[in-house]
Each structure stands twice: as structure tokens, then as C-alpha cells.
Specification:
Elements: H1 14-23, H2 31-58, H3 66-75, E1 92-97, E2 100-105, H4 112-117, H5 152-160, H6 181-190, H7 204-217, H8 222-234, H9 242-258, H10 262-277, H11 287-299, H12 312-330, H13 337-350, H14 356-365
Antiparallel strand pairs: 1-2
GO biological process, one term: RNA polymerase II preinitiation complex assembly
Family: Belongs to the TAF6 family.
Subcellular location: Nucleus
């Protein structure tokens, strides 16, 4: 019975070792030497892989990462291999020639001039903890960290059924016995429902916030304006200030259209954009103030002092995009906002007395 050679597991091919030896200047590596080096390298590689697997198992992962290999090398006192920390699979390319087969990594050429002149990456923000009030004397403050006091669904419900919150269950008699007979019928006849006046009282903090936001949005400081618009687009506690905000925009457009103040009209339209982008606000109750303001900026005859120089076309384009967003968000079979707005723009287009800027705005709006 002849000898049977049994190989346990995979080994590094001797051909690969000869190629590696040639790459470092060793030309004639014998087969026996290659076999010994292959066995020794395979044994040490298996030790490293076994130790790497321990790190993978203790990390509750099913995928071996380069960091596991580095940690295993550190355990054996070997300096880890630097540069292989990609989370993605490293693609190997295949090449053959001269009876040999090779798998290698396709390294891309890096332009050093472009690399040196590239802007530096921004430093990551440091981890910090910021505290805020959940409630003050049982009242939740309207800060971005807290949920909105009135959800968007509740705002929509109030818009659809404004008398819903006035409906109250029928009270019983003080003695606990329900009224019946003629007295109950008489009371039902004589009962008069009086609609209560809706009051929108703002706290001192909300009044200060409203003053600062409106001044920042129409002021000359661009950094403050950007912060104010970001607050309008993300703050969930603006529900109680919406009537005042919309009135401010409507009155501002009326005044600045007469004065042909193009810059302030742009700032006011940016406020409308920020309010529309706020996910916690529902603006359908205030469309009667917002839509005329936006339409004015689209089809007004003159929006600036020097129409031939100032770029009032950009304002008309921006306002028409706002109108399209309003129609997309609030058009229903009941209000027919899109149909009515389209009719307004169509009438402006078909009229012979319409000025050229108004025709442009009407076409852009349609």
C-alpha cells in the first residue's frame, strides 16, 4: 500500500511564494525551500485568523473586519498593517500570463497636486450635552426639543371643523337626575349657543421671539436672517404666533409693493417658504393672507424702482414656485385652490392691458 499524502486545510501555494520571492529580488527559490516557507506561513496565518475570529465572536458579528486582524496581530506582538480599514469589500483583480495566475488590488493613481490643494475636511463637532426644560410650572415650553403643543393633525381638524372644540357633552342636573318632560324640552328651545371669541394671547417670551424673528427676517444682517428662517422652518412651537406672522407678511407685502422695495419683498417670500417647510404647522386657515401676498409678487406690474436693472424676475420665479408648493399642499376638491389660482393667471395672460412683467409672472405661475 503506497503512501497517501493527506493535506489538512488550505495552504499557501508555492507558486505564489516564488512570485513574492522574485518581487523582493530572490530569483531561484527551490521547491523544498518554498514548501517549508509555505507550511510555516500557513501555520502562522491560521493562528492569526483564529485569534481574529475570537475578536469577531466577542463583538457579536458574523463578518470579519480588518480591525479584527489588526487586534490579533497586536496580541502576537506584531505591528498591525496600516491602510486597510475599508468597510466595503476590497476588490481583487485577476491577471494571468506566462503560466501564472495572480490576484492583485487595483490601486488608483492619486494626483498629489490635487490632493495637496484640496480643502481641509471640517473637524467633527465635539460630543456635548445640552439641557432644556420639559415643563415649567406644569406648562411645556415651546422649544424645538419638545413636541409641539398642538399637532399638525389637530390644526388640520380645527381648520376642517372649527366648531368641533365648542361642542360639549350635555350636562346633567346638579342632583344627578336627568331632566325629562316639558322642562327639558323648554330648555332645549330656549338654549342659545354663543360662539366664544378666540383669543390668541402671547406670553412675554413669545412676544420677544416674534419681535426678534420679524426684525431679523427683514433686517440687514444676513447671518441673523439665516438663523431666523431656520427657526421658522423647524420650530414646533409657532402655532400660536401663526396669525401674527401671516398678518405681518401680508401687511409687509402691501406696503413694500407700493414703495417698490424689492429686497424686503424677497425677504417676506423667504419667510413664507420657511413657514411652508415647517412640518409642525398647517397653514390652510391663513391662505387668505398668504396667497394674495404671493400672487402679488408674481403678477405685480412693478416690484422695484429700476425694473430695467434690478432682477425682479428672480422674485417672480421664486414666488411662482411658492404658489406651486401651496397648490400641491392645500388643493382639495372643496377649496379648488389650484383651479382658482390658474384662472387668475390665465385672465392676466389673456388681457391686452397687462404689462409685460405681469404677463411673464402669469406664464411662470401657470
Amino acid at each position: 500500500m503506497g503512501e497517501i499524502e493527506i493535506n489538512y486545510g488550505s495552504t499557501i501555494p508555492t507558486e505564489s511564494l516564488k512570485v513574492i520571492a522574485e518581487s523582493v529580488g530572490i530569483g531561484n527559490l527551490s521547491d523544498d525551500a518554498a514548501k517549508e516557507i509555505s507550511d510555516s506561513a500557513t501555520y502562522r496565518l491560521k493562528l492569526v485568523l483564529q485569534e481574529s475570529k475570537k475578536f469577531m465572536v466577542h463583538s457579536n458579528r458574523c463578518k470579519l473586519l480588518p480591525s479584527d486582524i489588526d487586534n490579533a496581530l497586536k496580541v502576537f506582538g506584531i505591528e498591525p498593517i496600516y491602510g486597510f480599514h475599508s468597510k466595503d469589500h476590497i476588490p481583487f483583480r485577476y491577471a494571468s500570463g506566462g503560466g501564472r495566475e495572480l490576484h492583485f488590488i487595483d490601486d488608483k493613481d492619486i494626483d498629489l497636486i490635487e490632493f495637496v490643494n484640496a480643502p481641509l475636511a471640517k473637524l467633527p463637532l465635539e460630543i456635548s450635552i445640552r439641557c432644556h426644560w420639559l415643563a415649567i410650572d406644569g406648562v411645556q415650553p415651546t422649544v424645538p426639543e419638545n413636541p409641539p403643543s398642538v399637532s399638525k393633525d389637530m390644526q388640520k381638524l380645527e381648520c376642517v371643523d372649527p366648531l368641533g372644540k365648542l361642542k360639549k357633552p350635555i350636562d346633567k342636573e346638579v342632583s344627578g337626575r336627568p331632566s325629562t318632560g316639558k322642562a327639558q324640552k323648554l330648555r332645549n328651545v330656549e338654549t342659545v349657543h354663543v360662539k366664544q371669541l378666540a383669543t390668541h394671547e402671547l406670553s412675554v417670551e413669545q412676544q420677544l421671539y416674534y419681535k426678534e424673528i420679524t426684525e431679523a427676517c427683514v433686517g440687514s444682517d444676513e447671518a441673523r436672517r439665516a438663523e431666523a428662517l431656520q427657526s421658522l422652518a423647524s420650530d414646533p412651537g409657532l402655532h400660536e404666533m401663526l396669525p401674527r406672522m401671516c398678518t405681518f407678511i401680508a401687511e409687509g407685502v402691501k406696503v413694500n409693493v407700493v414703495q417698490n422695495n424689492l429686497a424686503l419683498l424677497i425677504y417676506l417670500m423667504r419667510m413664507v417658504k420657511a413657514l411652508l417647510d415647517n412640518p409642525a404647522l398647517y397653514l390652510e386657515k391663513y391662505l387668505h393672507e398668504i396667497i394674495p401676498s404671493v400672487v402679488t409678487c408674481v403678477v405685480s406690474k412693478q416690484l422695484c424702482m429700476r425694473p430695467e436693472i434690478d432682477n425682479h424676475w428672480a422674485l417672480r420665479d421664486f414666488a411662482s414656485r411658492l404658489m406651486a408648493q401651496i397648490c400641491k399642499m392645500f388643493n382639495t376638491p372643496t377649496n379648488n385652490v389650484q383651479t382658482r389660482i390658474t384662472r387668475v393667471f390665465t385672465n392676466a395672460t389673456n388681457s391686452d392691458k397687462t404689462a409685460l412683467p405681469s404677463v411673464y409672472g402669469a406664464l411662470e405661475g401657470n
